[in-house]
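Quick one - inputs below.
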Amino acid sequence: MDLFDYQPSQDTAPSLDLSIVVPLYNEEESLPELQAWIQRVMQQHGFTYEIIFVNDGSTDNSWAVIERLSAEHPEVKGIKFRRNYGKSPALFCGFRRAQGDVVITMDADLQDSPDEIPELRRMIVEDGYDVVSGWKQKRYDPLSKTIPTKLFNATARRVSGIHNLHDFNCGLKAYRREVIKNIEVYGEMHRYIPYLAKNAGFTKIGEKVVHHQARKYGSTKFGLDRFVNGYLDLMTLWFLSRFGQKPMHVFGLGGSLMFLIGFIAAIVVGASKLIALSRGIPARLVTDNPYFFIALTMMLLGTQLFVAGFLGDLISRNSDQRNNYQIEKEI
Ligand code: UDP
Ligand code: MG
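Output:
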């Protein structure tokens, strides 16, 4: 890092009890109600707080509503993406801005209840949790969503090794500030933030049953493809957490093994030809020998895997572009 680029850390800013980060895409009807509800809960408990609305390229009037709310209430802040990037990039940018000691994420659609916030905060501050995830034990969603979700959560539990979470994808979660400042949510990884946190070394992960309500306005922004993408992301994360810093360890091992098998097969081919010749037996053509093809394939595959490993290593060192988003405005 260039010495002149050095910026004092954000910790010098006055700290708040809570940051509430709300990613949203076309939720204009819900926002005023959500803001009023959060404000009510915060005032009841005497918390200092900020609400960070991250407008993920909405095509309705959401941004105008946020501007109005922000003018009326100094706690309301906004980030406006130039286009729709997805929930994870929205969370990422909200996290970067958040100053609260405890950071809450919640959906904008009023399915999550702000009344849960004080208890979630208490679990972080008093019980010492790094992350507390909401569990929508009783859901108000169609069956087509709840059944695949059960399966999805079972897989996520196994793969991530976080056995006490029932509901990875719940939008309502609470984090100690260090957690969100030290993880990088990108792509569609918002489903696995507890796993990201665990991989970053924050292992005290808890759960709280939360109330869930049917969507009041608008419709869901995710279709059934969420399950396919969800599994693919889970595989990526598993791979990243095992080998992310060292892809060569997987590919290199596979590649070396293949190459070795191929090499031995090549020796068998060559030797059998030489032995045949030395005994004066009419020797088979090398290409008539099945070992020849094994040798060929294995050595090719081995080399390919090796190269994939090297490329993986190079890429993992150079991906600083991953979190560049076009932010149009901030208030
Ligand atoms: N969302 C977003 N960007 C998107 C899709 C969704 O910011 O591209 C927000 C959405 O506005 C809501 C939250 O993410 O606040 C959860 O979305 P939704 O309620 O549609 O998901 P579901 O409850 O059906 O899982
Ligand atoms: Mg919802």
